[in-house]
From TrEMBL:
Top-rank taxon: Bacteria
Organism: Lysobacter korlensis
SUPFAM superfamilies referenced in this protein's UniProt entry, alphabetically: SGNH hydrolase
Protein name as it appears in the record: GDSL-type esterase/lipase family protein
UniProt feature coiled coil, ranges: none
Pfam families: Lipase_GDSL_2 (PF13472)
Residue ranges of domain SGNH hydrolase-type esterase in the record: 11-163
Amino acid sequence: MTDNARESIAFVGDSLIEGGRWDEWFQESEVLSFGVPGATTDDLLKRLDEIVQADPDELVLLIGTEDLSRRGSVEHVVRNIETALVTLRKELPGTRLLLVSILPRGHEFAERIQEANRHLWQFVATVHGQYLDAWPALALEDGELNPMYTADRLHLNDQGYEAWLAELRPALARLRDQPPMSGVITLPRLHS
C-alpha cells in the first residue's frame, strides 16, 4: 500500500485506459496508469509483475477488445483475464479488484464481447472482485458503441468517458465499501 494518506488506484488495460484522464478525474487518489495502446490479454500477462510491484489499494482492469479485433477466440480472452485476476488476487491479497466489462465497439463484435463478458461476470466473484457492466451505458440495442461516444467505433471521446465515469464512480464507491481480500487464493494442482 502507499505510504501517504491517499489511497492508490491502478487503471490497467489497453488504449481505452491509456486515453483516460485518470489523474484529473480521481484527484483524491494516487493514480497509477497501466494503459498501453494495442495491449492484448497476452501483453497483460507479461506485465503483471510490474503491476504487482506497484501494490495499489484498488485496481480497475479493462482489457480484451484488442484480442477480439485480432480474431482471438473468446475462450483465449476469458482464460487470460481469469489467469490475470487469479494472479493479481494471489499476489495482492489486500487490493480491491474491479473488472470492467469489455466495452462495446462495432456491432459486428457484439456477440463475442457479450459472450466473454458473461463468463467474466460469473468468474470475478471467485477472486473476491467486483464487476462493472458498462455495456448498458455505452451500447446501442444492436451492440454498436453509441456513435455519440466515439469517432472510430472503438475509442471513447470525452462524452464516452463521461458516460463510463457515471458508471465507474458508483462502482468504485461500492468497491470501497467491501473489505479487501484477507487471504491468498490457492488453485488446486492439476495432475498431468
